[in-house]
UniProtKB/TrEMBL annotation:
Its EC number is 3.4.23.-. This is Sporulation sigma-E factor-processing peptidase. It holds the Pfam family Peptidase_U4. The active site is at residue 175. GO terms for cellular component: plasma membrane. Keywords: Aspartyl protease, Cell membrane, Hydrolase, Membrane, Protease, Sporulation, Transmembrane, Transmembrane helix. The lineage of its organism: Bacteria, Bacillati, Bacillota, Clostridia, Eubacteriales. It is found in: Cell membrane. Probable aspartic protease that is responsible for the proteolytic cleavage of the RNA polymerase sigma E factor (SigE/spoIIGB) to yield the active peptide in the mother cell during sporulation. Responds to a signal from the forespore that is triggered by the extracellular signal protein SpoIIR.
Length: 268
């Protein structure tokens, strides 16, 4: 009998990824698609051990029950025993349900009788199920991505200010937990990526030092300058005009380049 290792790994990877997705959906735990893929790869390679009779201990029942737990741990990245046991149990239940579903459809598509062994000949159903699993996983990830992006757009604004004769308009994100202010003037601080202010000159604006402290206890300071009459827009509608302190940064705030500035709550 010929065994195609690449096919076995690919098929089991798809099945494991599907099972991890519906398992963590069931227990309502958010997870990373990359980490889920790593857990699925582990499960796929574990399947190859069944082809080595000398490794029968590794494929014994206790180890079989341990593998889903490790896969879930890799996916969620949290060592919470209760959550891991609960998720692993749900994973096993979904696995049993999936096996029963596949076997039931196999009986309908392959002739059999009570006096002979059951032989699986028509395997087109397998590819159909694998295709449905792929569609489900990617559809789920797409829906999550669109939903998260939609929730982010509620915090998108635009700021506009002038530098002598030149106007700058930058899309900004309202960081609701950010209360950064300049201590001397008590003005709110706006962080802007330098790449969005091409041609902007800081000469003659005066320098202000803005100290900050992050959650992990780290401290630092930013150099900024006061900018008057900054206009704040939401959906092209002018909301307010305020003075603020602008600090220029080299860091990119959005991995998708959606916005180039961070607003503190004081801007509103």
């Amino acid at each position: 009998m010929k065994v195609y290792v690449d096919v076995i790994i690919l098929e089991n990877f798809i099945i494991n990824l599907f099972l991890i997705t519906i398992t963590l959906q069931t227990v309502r735990i958010k997870f990373s698609f990359v980490r889920a893929s790593l857990g699925s790869i582990l499960g796929a390679f574990y399947t190859l051990l069944y082809f080595f009779p000398s490794l029968s201990v590794v494929v014994s029942l206790p180890v079989k029950l341990l593998i889903p737990l490790i896969m879930i741990y890799i996916t969620i990245g949290k060592l919470n025993c209760l959550v891991l046991l609960k998720s692993s149990g749900v994973f096993l239940l979904w696995s049993i349900l999936l096996c029963g579903f596949i076997f039931a459809f196999s009986l309908m598509n392959n002739p059999y009788d009570l006096f002979s062994a059951f032989t699986l000949k028509n395997i087109y159903l397998k590819y159909m199920l694998l295709a449905l699993m792929i569609i489900y996983v990617f559809a789920y990830r797409t829906i999550i991505f669109i939903r998260d992006r939609k929730s982010l757009t509620d915090f998108f604004y635009e700021i506009e200010f002038s530098d002598n004769s030149k106007k700058f308009r930058v899309k900004a994100f309202l960081d609701s937990g950010n209360e950064l202010t300049e201590p001397a003037t008590t003005l709110p601080v706006i962080l802007i990526n330098k790449n969005y202010l091409e041609g902007f000159s800081e000469v003659g604006k005066g320098s202000l030092i803005v100290p900050y402290k992050v959650i992990n206890g780290g401290k630092g300071s930013l150099e900024g300058f006061r900018m008057n009459q900054i206009k704040l827009y939401k959906d092209d509608k002018l909301i307010s005009t305020k003075d603020a302190v602008i600090c220029l940064c080299k860091d990119q705030f959005s991995p998708y380049d959606d916005y180039g500035a961070l607003l503190s709550r004081g801007v509103l």
